[in-house]
Automatic annotation (TrEMBL):
Lineage: Bacteria, Pseudomonadati, Planctomycetota, Planctomycetia, Pirellulales
Start and end residues of each Anti-sigma K factor RskA C-terminal domain: 97-244
Transmembrane segments: 90-111
Chain spans, region Disordered: 230-258
Entry keyword set: Cell membrane, Membrane, Transmembrane, Transmembrane helix
Membrane topology: Single-pass membrane protein
Name of the protein in question: Regulator of SigK
MF terms in GO: sigma factor antagonist activity
Cellular compartment(s): Cell membrane; Membrane
One GO CC annotation: plasma membrane
Pfam family, one: RskA_C
InterPro entries documented for this protein: Anti-sigma-K/W_factor, Anti_sigma_zinc_sf, RskA_C
Biological process, per Gene Ontology: regulation of translation
Length: 258
């Protein structure tokens, strides 16, 4: 890789989101105008991966300190996922690891700006979460968003990935503070008939960031809604007893959904 390519490498994932400031965007555009096929292909891969992971559409450029942390997350994802002796395999997985890093970092920033009563959200350990999902699995996953389940608040506050091969649902949620009275964040499915099924508990991955990987029988849940509730400590009952904090349309992410 030549020096111009190397200097722009970390910016390409942000360029795919439109998260560069004008001078940086002009620099990227000027480099691509030279006909650099390598960087054009890399940018296209980031865009494809970002769309596949349902990356948030940011309407404004993040502030400098957030952008720097975005870059740090991209670099961390690369460093943790790059195999020492298999560069061709890494090239195939790199866009998904970096896109997941950017997605979660931007999502944490958006969640931290969703209201003055919420404390700033620390960036999650996305490289670890991406590793748990499995880089190769990202390409086959369907995706959806989790929105704030409180009345009158429809802010995007998380994401889920459905892996049909493994039969697993991977969740990542932002901006949920600890609650001593209801310390458990539990994922549920509610089917079209109104029946509840407890899927499992989310674990704290970083301040304000919770993740989970749970099993789901997709064949029986074509119209199901996914919920995350706050629950008291202890085993799950037949249905939630605490408030809904997140919800998402699982049916839209399942095979065969329009």
């Amino acid at each position: 890789m030549n020096n111009p390519c190397k200097s722009l490498d970390d910016l390409l994932a942000l360029a795919a989101l439109g998260a560069l400031d004008p001078p940086e965007q002009a620099e990227v555009d000027a480099h691509l105008a030279t006909g650099c096929g390598r960087c054009a292909q890399q940018l296209a891969s980031f865009r494809e991966a970002s769309e596949g992971l349902n990356v948030l559409n940011v309407s404004m450029t993040p502030p400098p300190e957030v952008r720097e942390r975005l870059l740090l997350r991209v670099r961390a994802a690369k460093a943790q996922r790059e195999p020492k002796k298999a560069p061709s395999r890494w090239l195939a997985l790199a866009p998904y690891a970096a896109a997941a890093a950017v997605f979660a970092a931007v999502g944490a920033w958006v969640a931290s700006r969703s209201g003055p009563a919420r404390a700033p959200v620390a960036l999650p350990s996305v490289a670890q979460w991406t590793e748990e999902v499995g880089g190769a699995a990202l390409n086959r996953c369907s995706q959806g968003v989790l929105v704030d389940g409180r009345p009158g608040d429809d802010a995007t506050a998380g994401n889920f990935l459905w892996d049909p091969v493994a039969g697993q649902l991977h969740l990542i949620a932002f901006g949920l503070e600890d609650d001593a009275a209801n310390p458990t964040l539990r994922a549920w499915l509610k089917d079209e008939a109104g029946g509840w099924q407890a899927l499992g508990d989310l674990r704290r991955d970083a301040p304000g960031v919770h993740v989970a990987a749970v099993r789901v029988d997709a064949d029986r849940q074509p119209g199901a809604t996914l919920y995350v509730t706050r629950e008291p400590a202890g085993p799950a009952g037949p249905e939630p007893t605490g408030p809904v904090v997140l919800e998402g349309d699982l049916g839209a992410a399942l095979p065969g959904a329009e």
